[in-house]
Amino acid sequence: MNTWIASTLWGLGGLLAGVVLWYLATVWSSSPLMQQFGPAAAFHSLLEILGWSETWMHVGASLQRIFVGLAISLGVGVPAGLLLGLSNRAHAALTPLFQFLRMISPLSWMPIAVMAFGIGDAPIYFLLGVAGVWPVLLNTASGVRHLNPRWLMLGRSLAATKLETLLYLILPGIVGSVLTGSRLAIGVLWIVLVPCEMLGVSAGLGYLILDTRDRMAYSELMAVIVLIGLIGYLLDSALRALFAALGQR
Asked: Where are the bilayer-spanning segments (predicted)?
């Protein structure tokens, strides 16, 4: 059997097993309320909300925040990663600080973000940037430090300037590392986004979670949770496809 077909069938089997466990968890519960959280009600509500223009407005708002957060992560993480990778002194001086900051949950900065930026998209962008910068930074630094030294020696032997070395040797050589960091960052950003969108904004999937809870539309709440997982999976798949298209492993 074709490897791709076999892998797909195994994946579908795993998803089916997850749905069965979900069904059993709601059926065996003694609470009638749990029936609204079951897969049948959730998938029925998912089909309904996918037909609402309001749902796509919330999806668009969340995706916009994700892409802005990723842009901030790349804009800060790639230059900082290059610095750590190219300079032993910078690596020695900054690595302990960065490792310390990385271990602080991005959500811990919520009160400070609201006080500094107010309510709206600005604090969300800040929190997403804080969450996503570390995978990009560390993978970029690792990519630079694991470049084949012969490439750099070749550049020096050809009298390449520092800018030419950066543009034509270093940056092409770390594309795979940056993509890996971006893929990890997307996963972190998507997880952090939902609680961030409970900071007083009026659009987004996190806001929609609160809205369905307040309306006690529990089957819709589960449908939104399924939709969040589905979109996150598609984002990761898109980055994996880009990774494969560039010939990376």
From this structure: 7-25, 66-88, 100-119, 125-144, 165-182, 188-210, 222-246
User: Can you list the domains of the chain with their CATH numbers?
Assistant: 65-86+109-249 (1.10.3720.10)
pLDDT single digits (tens) 98-130: 999 999 999 999 999 989 988 888 999 999 999
The C-alpha angle with vertex 193 and arms to 144 and 83, in degrees rounded to 5, equals: 20
Q: Which of 237, 241, 229, 224 is nearest to 54 (CA)?
A: 224
Sign of CA pseudo-dihedral 126, 191, 210, 110 = negative
Residue type, 189: L
What are 28-69's pLDDT values in tens digits?
766 677 777 888 888 989 999 998 889 999 999 999 999 999
So what's the pLDDT on residue 61?
A: 94
Greatest Cα pair distance, the chain, in angstroms, is: 76
